[in-house]
Each structure stands twice: as C-alpha cells, then as structure tokens.
Amino acid sequence: MEEQVIIKETKLYKFGEILVGLDSEDIEESLEVEIKRKFAEIVELTLTNYSTTNKSPIKSLLFDHAVGELVSAQMAIEKVITFKS
Question: What contacts 44, CB < 8 A, 6 or more positions away?
C-alpha cells in the first residue's frame, strides 16, 4: 500500500509586506492593494540598505523613524482614497 504525501506550501512574507498588511493570500486587487505593494517595496529597499551598511545608534534611530513615517504616509493615502464625503 502506497502512502500519500501531502505538501502544503506556505508563503513567507517579507518585512515590508507584513508591515503594510499584505500578509494574506486572499487579497483582491484594488488601488489600496497596489499602494500597499509600492510601500512594501520602499520599506524593503530601506531595510536592504540598512542591513548591508554599518549600523550605528543614529542610523538605527533614523531607520526606525523612516519606517514609521512610511507606514504613516501609506495609511494617510489609504484614508484619502477611501474617504467618502
């Protein structure tokens, strides 16, 4: 008797995707999702640069602040797009 092997694939999300809320398989395409993808890319570029250079206390503070500002900007843009008057 043969055993059946079931393989379950799990996507590993990047830091930027998790940060902006793209950590779900069932997201339908929309303008909001496109904006989240763009911000996720920017966060990933920032993280890559931060990770590959010499770290210092000031660079760590600047990185944290930059990521916070990116999330804030992304949320503000989503608010503008979804605002109903």
Answer: 14, 15, 16
